[in-house]
Amino acid sequence: MASLPEIKGFLETSFTDWRGRVAAVVFLARCNFRCPYCHNHRIVTSPHEVPTWPWLEVKSRLSRLRGWVDGVCVTGGEPTLHPGLPALLERFRALGFRIKLDTNGSRPGVLASLLEAGLVDQVALDVKAPLEPVPYRRNAGSGSDPEIVAATLELLSPLSVPLELRTTVHPALLSREELCRLGKDLGRRFGGRPGQVRWILQRCRAEEVLDPGLRSAPLLSPEEFAVWEHAARAAFSEVDPMPVGALATARKPG
After folding, report:
1. What pLDDT was estimated at residue 192?
2. Where are the alpha helices (DSSP H) in the chain?
3. Domain residue extents for the chain
4. Second label for 31, Cα 20 to 30 Å away, from 7, 39, 110, 180?
5. Pairing state between β 23-28 and 7-14
6. How does DSSP assign 90-109, residue by residue?
7. Mean pLDDT by 10-residue block, N- to C-terminus, for the chain (254 residues)?
8. What is the spatial distance between Cα 157 and Cα 151, in angstroms, rounded to a whole number?
9. How far, CA to CA in Å, does 229 sit from each of 16, 93, 201, 221, 233?
10. How far apart are the first and last CA of the chain?
11. In the prediction, which pLDDT does 246 show?
12. What per-residue confidence (pLDDT) applies to 1?
């Protein structure tokens, strides 16, 4: 039997990691991607330097939170790399918690087995870029394979499990046109599941990222990001995009 994954971070309560729920958050080490904007890179590149939370302490704290916390969000790193992940999720389930799993989509077989075993109640899938080799590897590193991520999307498409798709936007890594291509693809796959599938666009924060070069690269302003987001969601929904010149309007003070 595989040993439990080492827990490299534990947050007792979060109001933002699981929409509509109060969740505890568990961070697992290691990842097979190298996203330049990664904020958890210490547990990815140097997990031995990060203290491990003993399971008994995590269990004790979670037990005291029953009735207040709705579920546990398991994130990383990339949780599906760990052979002991099913055993860890079974322990959370035995404590009475619902489970949300964050993944980069690189292990569709593992995800399928977890869903089949009833160990995951919601999936959060990071979709870095259009499912094309150049933009995907620019955003997720040379070890990423967009074809495998596409297989994960195909796995999730017919299922009723609630799904959160997430894309981080940095203009040095992802163009507006690429973001809209991704939106069109995701809309084709999931546009018929309103309420069950959410696509979350995140404006990149450049402090403490894996690639130091991003810290000095120009970011989108909130107004510029709003225009990009509108265009991407228009592609997802196949509605008219924001007209040319809207950026200047968006920048005007209210």
Report:
1. 81
2. 41-45, 55-65, 85-94, 108-116, 133-140, 146-156, 176-190, 222-237, 246-251
3. 7-251
4. 180
5. antiparallel
6. HHHHHTT-EEEEEE-S--HH
7. 92 94 97 96 94 98 95 97 98 97 98 98 98 98 96 96 97 98 96 87 92 93 97 83 43 37
8. 10
9. 20, 36, 7, 12, 6
10. 60
11. 44
12. 64
What token pair was written down for 249?
Answer: 């309007």
Q: What is the CATH number of domain 7-251?
A: 3.20.20.70
Helix axes 108-116, 85-94, angle to 10 degrees: 30
Rounded to whole angstroms, the Cα distance separating 221 from 131 reads 26
* CB of 156 closer than 8 Å to CB of 204: no
The residue with tokens 């979060």 is: 14
Exposure string over 102-129, b if 16+ CB within 10 A, otherwise e: bbbbbbbebbeebbeeebbbbbbbbbbb
Two tokens, residue 31: 């990842």
Provide the whole-model pTM.
0.91
Number of helices and strands in the chain (H, E)? 9, 7
For residue 34, what is the DSSP state? -
